[in-house]
Amino acid sequence: MDPECARLLPALCDVLADPRQPVADDTCLEKLLDWFKAVTEAGSSLLLLQDHPCLVELLFHVLKPQDLSSRILSFVLRLAGIFAAQENCFQYLQQGELLPGLFGEPGPLGAAAWAAPSVRSGWIQGLHSLAQHPSALRFLADSGAVDTIFSLQGDPSLFVASAAGQLLVRVLDLALCGPAEGHISLQAWDWPACARKIVCHLEDCLRSEATPRVTQALHVLTTAFGHCHGLWTQGLWVQLSPLVARLLEKDPVPAPHALVDLLLSVARSSMLSSDPGLWETAAQTLSRLSPTQAGPLAAGILKLQDCPQALRIQAFGVLLQPLAFVLEATAQAPGMPGLLEGAAGDLMAVDTLPPSKSACVGLLCSALAHLELLQPLPQRPSPWPQAPLLAAVVAILRLCNGSAAPNSEAGGRLCAMLGGCVRVQRAALDFLGVLSQGLGPQELVTQVFAILLEYLVSPDSSPTVLKKAFQATLCWLLSSAAPPGCCDLEPYAQLVLGELLSVLRKRLCSPCWEVRDSGLEFLTQMTRHQGGQAGFRQALLASEVPELTRQLLQDPESYVRASAVAAVGQLSSWGLLAAPSSPEHAATPQKTPLEELLLVLTTDSEGFPRRAVMRVFTEWLRDGYADVAEDPERFVARVLQAASGDLDWEVRVQGLELALAFLEQLLGPCGPSAVAPPGALAQALQALCRVQLFEFAFRSLFDCDRPVAQKSCDLLLFLRAKAIPSSNSQEAGDGPDVTSVEAALRRWQAGEQGQPLGELAPEAVLAVLRSMDLEALQDTLAESSDHVERSPQSLLQDMLATVGVLGDNEADCY
Amino acid sequence: MCHVRMEQKTTAWKPSIWNNLGLSETLLAREYCLSGHPTLPCNVLKFKSTTIMLDCGLDMTSTLNFLPLPLVQSPRLSNLPGWSLKDGNAFLDKELKECSGHVFVDSVPEFCLPETELIDLSTVDVILISNYHCMMALPYITEHTGFTGTVYATEPTVQIGRLLMEELVNFIERVPKAQSASLWKNKDIQRLLPSPLKDAVEVSTWRRCYTMQEVNSALSKIQLVGYSQKIELFGAVQVTPLSSGYALGSSNWIIQSHYEKVSYVSGSSLLTTHPQPMDQASLKNSDVLILTGLTQIPTANPDSMVGEFCSNLALTVRNGGNVLVPCYPSGVIYDLLECLYQYIDSAGLSSIPFYFISPVANSSLEFSQIFAEWLCHNKQTKVYLPEPPFPHAELIQTNKLKHYPSIHGDFSNDFRQPCVVFTGHPSLRFGDVVHFMELWGKSSLNTVIFTEPDFSYLEALAPYQPLAMKCIYCPIDTRLNFIQVSKLLKEVQPLHVVCPEQYTQPPPAQSHRMDLMVDCQPPAMSYRRAEVLALPFKRRYEKIEIMPELADSLVPMEIKPGISLATVSAVLHTKDNKHVLQPPPRPTQPTGGKKRKRASDDIPDCKVLKPLLSGSIPVDQFVQTLEKHGFSDIKVEDTAKGHIVLLQEAETLIQIEEDSTHIICDDDEVLRVRLRDLVLKFLQKF
């Protein structure tokens, strides 16, 4: 502890112990605890208490009958726990009978303060901290704390109840782990009394008819198997698994969610997953729980690396069941292979979906979401029923938009329940997008494109659904370009594209900005991937989409303008932004895309479009876009001039990014060594001076927004590495006089940014770079801006000051 | 006057009162359905001796069978070939013309009237109008059926209804057509015609449009009402209009007596558009809810359609094309103009002119601004700023929206393309729209956007085929959809729902869509054109007033806690559907029989009244009492209505039922009296 903190500590302890000076801010106490924890972890708690008797006094102070606030009481309980975590300090505190006074019957346990949840929570957390050594275990056993913890499991405060469960696990672990672990029997009846007591309690709970008690026990076990890896966990599972299995005999099965959590926790534990009984219980659970309850278990099982194949098949069946039902209910003619055939055989009867709309929608959405997560995993079930899954998703989407015409009664019911349901539509479209990685039979792929087009065309598609439909369409279009990336789209995809562009044309005129925005995003992505393909180029140029995109640069909504900027950037990169054909524009010379985007950068009132322009420009510079490559210097100069004056710090950061790209083009890419050859370097520096890159970079170095300064620092470091060999870095002998430059920089640092830098010669730049301690600046910038305020000293001062202010306010009130 | 509700639990009262009143005829309420069109209803409700016509809709889809009436000579239409039978017989070629495989009647368009034969319409006491679209048949009813009653409607309904009728008459009268076709209506000939003419119903009753004179006369019979205003009809029922949220001044109606309530829901909307929101709360506790005028396009969401409308409009105009919007002069057009007001600047369409062409365009735009009290809250508050409630005022001020009575005159000077034109009639058979269809139909740059849901757009376009212009169908129907209906019914919980048969099954084209029908418990009762429906409730109670002096003379006896009974001897006086119990005339003192009494002065025969009995006979205790009094061998049998106590020895049978007890014994009067007295011990007398 530094001396200044040590000096402040007694005053703070006085304040904390004084009920007339309430601490206004709970977070201060939390920070204080964090600090004490750090201090005790770094050194001896006993020494700390001996050096600072005020702390011991504070702890003892609580024992006196008085009107202390519950938050201080809770704080002291937790603080005592932190100190007592070290055995010698525990014994030191025990000598003064402090711990029984705090955690035993005479303490807050029996007092009125116990009614406050924060005190009960502090009590548990204090014990949790101190339960680290055998003495603590004896203390816990002798003080009767364990019984109190049992009762706190049912506490009305969920935080307290949950912490009580965790404390039980901690106590069990303490009792059964440690040096004697090797001798611990796998039979629970040989365990220490304290552990036996907890196990008996858990058994009682599992046998109980009251669901909340069962839930408590399951939560404790889930925590134990999830967090503890001692041998004893095996013994515990052996002891309790029959009781867990017996829960499945009840109707309904109590606490299904907690049960699922427990089984997954056991299955993931390397100590326990070898138990064949576990898989049997899991299998039974899958068949006993409703599809909605069993879904998370099934998904969890399928994500496991290692589990019996039969169980995996069963679990997959659970996830597929809702989709299989949909498929069956909407089947136009028998003969279509069912989803469950082959996957789960006839283990699961496809019977009914939940009767209520919300339950049915919830089940379908969760099944779709689980399958979506499963699809890309290497351990996903094999064979993956790609075709029936595609058929099922298409059927769901048809039910949602009302275009399905099922003959069966179940189909009719589904139609009524899913019609217009946005949640299901979104989940199904997400999954459909993921399924594009697997393709499928041509006939189904055609259906996929047909339903996607229906969604894109339908005026009833909500903006969020439309966005997902665009994303899924993109996935399918890209996956149907075969072989990937080098060939045109398949003929049917080409057909789809024609219709798609006509839809896109209309969507870009939508009165709803979200729709225009997702349309533009789709166009940008599509162009990025397909801009070089003849089929795509032809279709796009024949449509009015490029012209509409250009018009959207003037959209009233800034997000749309930003997306339009990105789209225009992509389109013109690929030469797809043809001059407008309408006669009214023919008279006036058309601006080039570069000019249009520069206009956005200099005039747009919102940050998003300007940031988008900077991204496009950086990309253009890197990719050698024709208009830029013509005269890159002029381009960079214009852009940097605009960016340096921008009020948005992200635009300025982007400006530096563009400057970096320019540097890399002149001096070669970032590399471990690679000092540029002198000739090239001189030319490059000349160019950099001409575009006034240094003025921008130096100015940014002292930018009030830290990311800008950091970026600039990185850029200058890169330049220095390229320009000045490391052996030469300290050499500042006969360089040019840079005092005026340095003076200007100092003034900038002081906040006088208006000061001009004047003409900079390359030599002067190099000299300034040599003289600047950029590394130190980088370190300073790397520290978060509140690093000064976060010191413990500052915390103590703040707390004392707040109390003082409170006092003043009181006086004012009189 | 004191009001006593005669809630008799004993059965003795009710039959006697009903019988005395001779009201058994009117116990049932009936509904006569005169229109087959669920959104253009015309029903007659007979309820408590009143005959009420609910709406007076005119089915104009019949006009789709006719050729359009062009404003200027159209060589294309006048050169269409005549239609001849398969055998080459061309006797109909003057009446029927063929265009792109469809056959049209070349005559003045005619309308399909509500049924006039089902009920004598001269007996209709009142007509209640729910919105301006549902009154278009009014002149046919009020001027040609001997109708002498009153029509009730709100002021905006009447004013805008007048505009719609005026526009209709104007559209048809300004293009006089000499020819009137009637040959094709002959049943034997009609059979030979191609569809849809072959299947057209009741063509013989189709009529030409009314005249302005008839319109004025019909409208003069309307009495204006305000929302929640209670109107007494002959003292028998009270009718009240409630806001229905669909259009300016649109109403639902409550028709109620003291103990029965019928709600008539016609053309309602829960969406926030320009009219006052729908009053749902007042519809609660209805015995019967008659549900008509739901959305015609249940699968189209009005918001999406407006979006679609705007996108297509912008797309066309940006390409240099013109947009034609066939529409009515009032209603959705206000909302469309408001959406466009917000949209045109953002879509860069500020320089595009919008034209609204209708003989009543000016009045419609101005009327909408003055009916502030009938508007939604937002628009009402604008009036106090003061600002015009609708933004189309600003569009007019800034010259973005211009309106003209017709294409002739000023319009031709101002006309600039590309442009957007709103004009009627949505059937595309008459009005200025015919001209624009002819003018713009040949170019694929132009677009016609259908927003009114009343006509099938494909049928409307049939006489213009082949057509190069793009056609977009964005029907905007803000009336209730089936999900909203189901919520509404859950909210207001009527005992019974009555609706057109079209609402009780999914649409024929989407037979699997079980969600596209009215779903309620008990299932809705349905009706169809020319059908009479007994409404599913019986009137049980009638309110009777008791004169104070008579009420004073009553001596109530408490027979159960909270329930008192009193016997009443009175004269029931009934006039104007009001019933009053008056004290009986005092018995005149005998005057020695010198004067001859007139028969009418006779005092009603007051028989000596036996005491009235009440209570019930507990069988077990009764049997015990019988045993106590020496009867043995008693057997009790349960029957459907009560019990039979058999005294086998005495060969006697006592039948105990809920409201009667019979002692059946063989002429043993002593025994009967003894038993009667034992029975009476268990009953109270008063």
TrEMBL record, chain A:
Its main location: cytoplasm. It comes from the Eukaryota. GO terms for cellular component: cytoplasm; nucleus. InterPro entries: ARM-like, ARM-type_fold, BRAT1. Keywords: Cytoplasm. The keyword Glycoprotein does not apply. It is found in: Cytoplasm. Gene3D superfamilies: Leucine-rich Repeat Variant. The keyword Protein transport does not apply. GO terms for biological process: cell population proliferation; DNA damage response. Belongs to the BRAT1 family. This is BRCA1 associated ATM activator 1. It comes from Bos indicus x Bos taurus (Hybrid cattle).
TrEMBL record, chain B:
Keywords: Cytoplasm, Nucleus. Residues 576-601 are annotated as: Disordered. InterPro entries: Beta_Casp, Integrator_9su, IntS9-like_C, Metallo-B-lactamas, RibonucZ/Hydroxyglut_hydro. Component of the integrator complex, a multiprotein complex that terminates RNA polymerase II (Pol II) transcription in the promoter-proximal region of genes. Residues 333-461 form the Beta-Casp domain. Component of the Integrator complex, composed of core subunits INTS1, INTS2, INTS3, INTS4, INTS5, INTS6, INTS7, INTS8, INTS9/RC74, INTS10, INTS11/CPSF3L, INTS12, INTS13, INTS14 and INTS15. The core complex associates with protein phosphatase 2A subunits PPP2CA and PPP2R1A, to form the Integrator-PP2A (INTAC) complex. INTS9 is part of the RNA endonuclease subcomplex, composed of INTS4, INTS9, INTS11 and inositol hexakisphosphate (InsP6). Interacts with WDR73; interaction is required for the assembly of the RNA endonuclease subcomplex in the cytoplasm. One of its GO terms (biological process) is RNA polymerase II transcription initiation surveillance. CDD domains: Int9-like_MBL-fold. Its main location: cytoplasm. It comes from the Eukaryota. It is found in: Cytoplasm; Nucleus. Belongs to the metallo-beta-lactamase superfamily. RNA-metabolizing metallo-beta-lactamase-like family. INTS9 subfamily. This is Integrator complex subunit 9. One of its GO terms (cellular component) is integrator complex. The keyword Cytoplasm applies.
